[in-house]
């Protein structure tokens, strides 16, 4: 097989070991002789696997007691409405930080269920930084943040201290660094950036914030439906959960989240140093907010004239693919390039990219 490093923003690269284990389970799950895709979720092996995935996540993120872990369909995008439906009363308000396209989608959706206070925004500067000083609204139910802005490559290095509790979309950096879960009332994340394949989103919710809104919640959208059933109220995305299970084992064997953070910092520093020292390329995000997960970069204006950029970008991307460096095209709203270097991207991949950038110059 051709050696490829996949820099896709999501779905994204997974540990090879995890995908190989998942592939084997399609033929025969845990020595049962039955493939995992063909097995009822009401069987001991599957129930055990889902329960183990929950406890692995609890261990890796040091989730304190009082929190529930759910595996749900609908991606992170369903959580944009499910969160306010469950915890934001129609006559109450919530504070939202507008730090990127996903953050903006979350706040737009919340407006359908209660009052939203946009307490800060970096939209006017194409979301190239995280706003630092903002006032929270007295009486707001929660403060919503997007921990890592996948498209713009910015990341909250320190979370703001919420008057009540934080609600966080952690889709693109969950498990990349240790976090203090006790600051959060609710964390949600689609799996397909840093945890597994598409098809499952994880919700970590402090149970005492639930059951306080007046509205009648549709059964499937109510977290309280899924909690006592351990995400098995209906058929869960078993295979996606299983791949996540293998990824979590991989992460645990590697030394857990604290060790992962060290590796992620090394990878990101290597690429940022290369960009800062390059005469051809530069990063687009404010230095103090730079993401360790998604690194957008462009040609420097003084190196490539505006009317030559598009042609040069095509050349760069084509030559990169020839070297096995895939999916480096930037998001259309930033342009240029983006290297997503999630947990599963090995150091080797970042080294290959840096070498290629030097050679290309
Ligand atoms: C990818 C992404 C989403 C959307 O996830 P889906 O699972 O496709 O709905 C939401 N928020 C962030 C921060 C993302 O990176």
Please characterize this protein's 3D structure:
There is one protein chain. The chain is an alpha/beta fold and 361 residues long. It folds into two domains: 16-254, 3-Layer(aba) Sandwich (Aspartate Aminotransferase, domain 2), CATH 3.40.640; 256-360, Aspartate Aminotransferase, domain 1 (Alpha-Beta Complex). The chain has helices spanning 16-27, 44-60, 75-87, 101-110, 223-226, 238-254, 256-276, 309-322, 347-360; strands spanning 5-6, 67-72, 93-98, 115-121, 143-146, 148-149, 154-155, 166-169, 184-190, 201-206, 281-283, 294-299, 325-326, 337-340. The strands form four sheets. The protein has a seven-stranded mixed β-sheet, sandwiched between helices. The longest helix has 21 residues, at 256-276. The protein is globular and about 60 Å long.
List strands and helices in order, with pairings.
Layout: E1 5-6, H1 16-27, H2 44-60, E2 67-72, H3 75-87, E3 93-98, H4 101-110, E4 115-121, E5 143-146, E6 148-149, E7 154-155, E8 166-169, E9 184-190, E10 201-206, H5 223-226, H6 238-254, H7 256-276, E11 281-283, E12 294-299, H8 309-322, E13 325-326, E14 337-340, H9 347-360
Parallel strand pairs: 1-13, 3-4, 3-5, 5-8, 8-9
Antiparallel strand pairs: 2-10, 6-7, 9-10, 11-12, 12-14
């Amino acid at each position: 097989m051709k050696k490829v490093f996949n820099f896709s923003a999501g779905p994204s690269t997974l540990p090879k070991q995890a995908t190989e284990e998942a592939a084997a389970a399609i033929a025969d799950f845990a020595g049962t002789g039955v493939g995992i895709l063909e097995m009822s979720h009401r069987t001991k092996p599957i129930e055990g696997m889902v329960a183990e995935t929950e406890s692995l996540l609890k261990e890796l993120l040091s989730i304190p007691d009082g929190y529930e872990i759910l595996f749900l369909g609908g991606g992170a995008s369903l959580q944009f409405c499910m969160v306010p439906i469950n915890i934001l009363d129609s006559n109450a308000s919530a504070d939202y930080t507008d730090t990127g396209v996903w953050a903006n989608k979350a706040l737009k959706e919340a407006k359908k269920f209660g009052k939203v206070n946009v307490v800060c925004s970096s939209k006017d500067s194409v979301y190239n930084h995280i706003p630092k000083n903002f006032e929270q609204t007295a009486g707001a139910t929660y403060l919503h943040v997007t921990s890592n802005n996948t498209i713009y490559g910015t990341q909250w290095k320190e979370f703001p201290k919420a008057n009540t509790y934080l609600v966080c979309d952690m889709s693109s950096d969950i498990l990349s660094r240790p976090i203090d879960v006790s600051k959060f009332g609710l964390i949600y994340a689609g799996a397909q950036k840093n945890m597994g394949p598409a098809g499952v989103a994880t919700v970590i919710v402090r149970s005492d914030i639930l059951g306080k809104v007046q509205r009648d919640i549709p059964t499937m959208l109510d977290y309280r439906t899924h909690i006592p059933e351990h995400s098995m109220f209906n058929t869960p995305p078993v295979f996606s959960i299983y791949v996540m299970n293998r990824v979590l084992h991989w992460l645990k064997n590697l030394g857990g989240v604290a060790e992962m953070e060290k590796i992620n910092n090394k990878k990101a520093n290597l690429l940022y140093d290369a960009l800062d020292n390059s005469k051809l390329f530069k990063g687009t995000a404010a230095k103090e907010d730079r993401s360790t997960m998604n690194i957008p970069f462009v040609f420097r204006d003084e190196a490539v004239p505006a009317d030559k950029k598009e042609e040069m970008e095509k050349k760069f991307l084509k030559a990169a693919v020839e070297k096995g460096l895939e999916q480096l095209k930037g998001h259309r709203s930033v342009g240029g390039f983006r290297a997503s270097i999630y947990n599963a991207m090995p150091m080797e991949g970042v080294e290959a990219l840096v070498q290629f950038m030097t050679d290309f110059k």
